[in-house]
Amino acid sequence: MFPETRLRRNRYDRRIRELTAESRILTDRLVMPVFIDESLKGRKGIDSMPGIYRYGMDSIGDYARHLDELGISAILLFGIPEDKDELGSSSYDPDGVIQKSIKILKENYSGIIITDLCMCEYTSHGHCGIIRNGVIDNDSTIEAYGKIAVTYAESGADIIAPSGMMDGQVRAIRNALDTNGFQEIPIMSYSAKYASLLYGPFREAADSKPSFGDRKTHQMNPRNYREAMREIDLDVKEGADIVMVKPALFYLDVLTRARQFFDLPIAAYGVSGEYSMIANAVDKGLLQKEVIDEYIQSVFRAGADIFITYFAESYVSNVKR
Ligand code: PBG
Ligand code: ZN
Fold first, then answer.
1. Does residue 35 have its Cβ closer than 6 Å to ligand 1?
2. Domain for residue 9, yes or no?
3. For a Cys-Cys bond, which of 113, 202, 295, 296 suits 272, CB 3.0-4.6 Å?
4. What range does the domain containing 285 cover?
5. Helix, strand or coil for residue 231?
6. Residue 109 belongs to a domain with what CATH number?
7. Taking Cα atoms as reference points, which of 137, 161, 274 lies closest to residue 218?
8. Is there a contact between 259 and 266 (Cβ–Cβ < 8 Å)?
9. CB of 117 closer than 8 Å to CB of 173
10. Is the peptide bond before 33 cis (omega within 30 degrees of 0)?
11. Is residue 84 part of a domain?
12. 198-224 pLDDT, tens digit each
């Protein structure tokens, strides 16, 4: 009798749909990004990202305790320092915003503390490294990255996540960590990070907009796909423990290919622009809020093991309820 194959059989009953689902969202695979502003008291909303705030040093402990109680298993820290200079020297200050914050967080949060490592929040010009002759000088920048990594590790960071897309940054950081006694600290590398316009809201949130030029001399060309495998491959060879594809939504193809090529854990970063598009559409009633589940699900289905998303906090608190 036609049709003899009836795929709807597995779909009629909600419980059977659950039983036969090919992937699911594990809340302990979600990472919540956290912005810490050294000169702020309390917290301050980010206009383009409803529900997301910058936290001052005085409020970060309470917020971390809240995330801990919710069961958020990992946070990714971004710092907005009081002082910026040409060389971004506040990034490796042992008394810098992230270094001080980690110590506070350690007392209030039992999950994994991941530190984003870049210089764009710390340089007066907003670029990801040290400028020489109008461009970012690769080799002096990765040396500085090594210094930053050591101060993060000394403060108690659990994972170091370099996002600067400099050549050789993973090896430089690995060497710096190892020679300072931090052989056991993993590196989560932003390996395939694209020069995307979806970072716009973040740059407002983190006050890290470049004052001239753009990030196309180091972040990947959005038109490229094969090159992402070269970036990831190099990072693996340099000693990355976890690799990342960023952004997530427009780059699910890259994520799927990375999953097929590599056997180490792969993270995806659902960036500020993705959050902003979806959260604002839901807020305005243009999309049902369950679209958030579909969004998160798509990233795991595409092959991510770990998903860094600004929805982590609200998603986990909804599941709990
Ligand atoms: C720092 C950094 C950026 C993001 C993460 N780390 C911004 C950038 O590269 O300009 C983007 C995160 C987001 O948009 O949510 N280099
Ligand atoms: Zn940067």
1. no
2. no
3. 202
4. 24-320
5. helix
6. 3.20.20.70
7. 137
8. yes
9. yes
10. no
11. yes
12. 999 999 888 899 999 999 999 999 999
Q: pLDDT tens-digit profile of 266-298? A: 999 999 999 999 999 999 999 999 999 999 999
Tokens of 121: 């929040």
Q: Which of 193, 209, 216, 284 is catalytic?
A: 193
- Taking residue 314's Cβ as centre, other Cβ atoms within 10 Å add up to 17
Mean pLDDT of 56-62: 98
Q: Give the residue, by CA position, lying nearest to ligand 1 atom 12.
A: 271
Give Cα separations from 293 to 25, 288, 300, 311, 312 (angstroms): 8, 10, 11, 10, 11
Q: Write down the pLDDT at residue 204.
A: 87
Amino acid found at 185: I
Number of domains in the chain: 1
209 is catalytic: no
Q: Within a domain: residue 19?
A: no
Question: Given a cut of 70, is residue 321 above it in pLDDT?
Answer: no
Q: What is the pLDDT of residue 320?
A: 72
Q: What is the pTM of this model?
A: 0.97
Nearest C-alpha neighbor of 258 from the set 238, 242, 281, 274: 242
Identify whether 2 is part of a domain.
Answer: no
Is the CB of residue 163 below 6 angstroms from any atom belonging to ligand 1?
yes
Q: How far is CA 138 from CA 101, 174, 199, 224, in A?
A: 28, 16, 22, 22
Enter the tokens of residue 295: 């969004």
